[in-house]
Amino acid sequence: MPATEPTRPRLRVVRGLPDDAELAAVVAALLVVSAAGPSSPVPARSAWAAPGARRDAPRTAGPDAWRLSGLPL
User: Which residue ranges does the record annotate as region Disordered (predicted)?
Assistant: First the structure.
């Protein structure tokens, strides 16, 4: 059986002396965060909530001009 190289720990305590319960809590929290996967992207803001739809912003022609024309002034 070949000898395996020792692996570096993925978690290292830099300062303090945590007990077993504290280390278990940190490991559990990291597992939950890593299992959740990447965060979902921020949904696109609708034209109704866009800052350009404010009253003081001038209306301009463009691909969504017909949609923006229904906004109140």
Answer: 37-73
